[in-house]
Automatic annotation (TrEMBL):
Recorded topology in the membrane: Lipid-anchor
Coiled-coil regions listed in the entry: none
Family statement: Belongs to the small GTPase superfamily. Rab family.
Entry GO terms, CC: endomembrane system
Name the UniProt record assigns to this protein: Uncharacterized protein
Cellular location(s): Endomembrane system
Domain of life: Eukaryota
Keyword line: GTP-binding, Lipoprotein, Membrane, Nucleotide-binding, Prenylation
First-to-last residue of the parent protein present: 8 to 184 of 227
Organism listed in the record: Ensete ventricosum
Molecular function in Gene Ontology: GTP binding; GTPase activity
Length: 177
């Protein structure tokens, strides 16, 4: 992961959004530190975590912002979105309501963020397939219609988490460079 004394070519701010308890903080923990905790509490005080990675011979520092529980009160502020070049819009594949709210999150995001922001729709908790409440086709259709990237992930099993972040960061890099 991040190395000491490394030359950084780009810093990209990416925000995590979506309903409470869909797994945003665990996706971040998995991507930034390769960790997962079953009993995750709302992160207090920590605004973002970083991970440095290489894309196309460039050193990219990804600065990933987490809502730290503010989504419960719909209090995600415009400061949160400011300067973001990427967004991970997360729902829980076992909770239909969290998918039904995705359109609302997208409106909020598009109202606050840069118009070129790269957005990945994420259906998290793919390890809980037997409890699935959101058909993958519904999400694919929505993503296609709204011009979003889409992946199902499991922060628990580390499925597609790397892929989702790297896809967004690579797209941002290609737009930026
Ligand atoms: P947040 O409120 O969106 O930040 O959600 P958290 O990351 O705090 O996760 C909410 C709950 O879902 C916690 O109990 C996590 O352990 C659990 N969780 C998160 N990701 C996954 C996953 O991929 N699979 C399963 N089975 N549980 C998950
Ligand atoms: Mg959280």
């Amino acid at each position: 992961y991040g190395e000491f004394n490394q030359r950084i070519d780009y810093v990209f701010k990416v925000v995590l959004i979506g309903d409470s308890a869909v797994g945003k903080s665990q996706l971040l923990a998995r991507f930034a530190r390769n960790e997962f905790s079953v009993d995750s509490k709302a992160t207090i005080g920590v605004e973002f975590q970083t991970r440095t990675l290489n894309i196309d011979d460039k050193t990219i520092k990804a600065q990933i912002w987490d809502t730290a529980g503010q989504e419960r009160y719909r209090a995600v502020t415009s400061a949160y979105y400011r300067g973001a070049v990427g967004a991970m819009l997360v729902y829980d594949i076992t909770k239909r309501q969290t998918f039904d709210h995705v359109a609302r999150w997208l409106d909020e995001l598009r109202g606050h963020a840069d118009r070129n922001i790269v957005i990945m729709l994420i259906g998290n908790k793919s390890d809980l397939g037997s409890l699935r409440a959101v058909p993958i086709e519904d999400a694919k259709e929505f993503a296609q219609r709204e011009n979003l990237f889409f992946m199902e992930t499991s922060a628990l099993e580390a499925t597609n988490v790397e892929g989702a972040f790297v896809t967004v960061l690579t797209e941002i890099y290609q737009i930026t460079s």
